[in-house]
Automatic annotation (TrEMBL):
Residues 39-287 form the G-protein coupled receptors family 1 profile domain. The chain crosses the membrane at residues 23-46, 95-117, 137-156, 191-213, 234-257, 269-289. SUPFAM superfamilies: Family A G protein-coupled receptor-like. Keywords: Cell membrane, G-protein coupled receptor, Membrane, Olfaction, Receptor, Sensory transduction, Transducer, Transmembrane, Transmembrane helix. GO terms for molecular function: G protein-coupled receptor activity; olfactory receptor activity. The keyword Protein biosynthesis does not apply. This is Olfactory receptor. Odorant receptor. It is a multi-pass membrane protein. It comes from the Eukaryota. InterPro entries: GPCR_Rhodpsn, GPCR_Rhodpsn_7TM, Olfact_rcpt, Olfactory_GPCR. It is found in: Cell membrane. It comes from Vombatus ursinus (Common wombat). GO terms for cellular component: plasma membrane.
Length: 317
């Protein structure tokens, strides 16, 4: 326990050593963050205001909130470190950051699983959609996603910070994550973390299989649609979802199972960007901004703001 209290802060890794490149990194990350912030806030606001979108877009609303929180946990801190010449993060700050990263990323994979099932029901069983995917069912699925992410956050943060840190305090990552913290730990036994990873990967594989089966049935049904235009529309909606999901899941799995002894700092940074930065930025575009109902709601909001200043349209009440 004495060794554990020796370290009161950690040092996060910068992408570049040169000051000019750090400024470019800060600007690049700031632009990415602003795009993710505006996109996710816009989707969350539109769905919250338009009562017609509350049930069909409930999962998208939760996804936007998750992505907004997820990217806000890591990117602003990295920007501040690049601009301040100070890459330190307190011990408690690192604990909180790790907990939140696992919470939001874990919740997202479960929510994406629920969304794939929602899409399957909408396309393969349209007549039963309102019964199967009722508001109560959507609420329960979303609640389970948040709860599962919270459980994993507690498990990972507890097992990781039960390790003693008595040597190097440099984390080879731009945020606190499990592999980088395990690497700098002075403990040679990581059984609790391996058990937590095994349990998490087991559920993660189950989610991936469920998503694959759901989209498999969805694509099979889409191929039976007689009109080429309808098939193309369905594929253009579903395929980007799968691509972003594959990038998110694959990069996260590789980052966590790659042996620490063979760790390359540049590779680690790139992998972490693919699962911590890219999905929250692209999800609003892929899942929501290309959606016809979202566009309609956005036009209503703009029309109300600029032309109907007297009262809000009924669809927004």
């Amino acid at each position: 326990m004495a060794n554990l209290t020796m370290i009161t802060e950690f040092l996060l890794m910068n992408f570049f050593n040169a000051w000019q490149l750090q400024i470019l990194h800060a600007i690049f990350f700031l632009l990415i963050y602003l795009v993710a912030l505006m996109g996710n806030l816009l989707i969350f606001t539109l769905i919250s205001l338009d009562e017609h979108l509350h049930t069909p877009m409930y999962f998208l609303k939760n996804l936007s909130l998750l992505d907004l929180c997820f990217i806000s946990v890591t990117v602003p801190k990295s920007i501040a470190n690049s601009l301040s010449h100070n890459s330190s993060i307190s011990y408690l700050g690192c604990v909180l950051q790790l907990f939140l990263v696992i919470l939001f990323s874990g919740s997202e994979i479960f929510l994406l699983t629920a969304m794939s099932y929602d899409r399957y029901v909408a396309i393969c069983q349209p007549l039963h959609y309102e019964v199967i995917m009722s508001r109560e069912a959507c609420l329960r699925m979303a609640d389970v996603s948040w709860l599962a992410g919270s459980v994993f956050g507690v498990m990972y943060s507890t097992t990781t910070f039960s390790l003693p840190f008595c040597g190097s305090k440099e984390i080879h990552q731009f945020f606190c994550d499990v592999p980088s913290l395990v690497k700098i730990s002075c403990s040679e036994t990581h059984m609790a973390i391996y058990l937590t990873m095994a349990f998490a990967f087991g559920l993660g594989i189950f989610c991936c299989i469920s998503i694959t089966v759901s989209y498999g049935h969805t694509f099979s049904t889409v191929l039976k649609i007689p009109t080429t235009e309808a098939r193309a529309k369905a594929f253009s909606t579903c395929l980007p979802h799968l691509i972003v999901l594959m990038v998110f899941a694959t990069s996260a799995i590789v980052a966590y199972i790659k042996p620490p002894s063979y760790s390359d700092s540049v590779v680690d940074l790139l992998l972490s960007m693919f699962y911590a930065v890219v999905p929250p930025t692209l999800n609003p575009i892929i899942y929501s901004l290309r959606n016809k109902d979202i566009k309609t709601s956005l036009r209503k909001l703009i029309a109300w703001k600029h032309f109907l200043k007297g009262s809000m349209p009924k669809s927004f009440l």
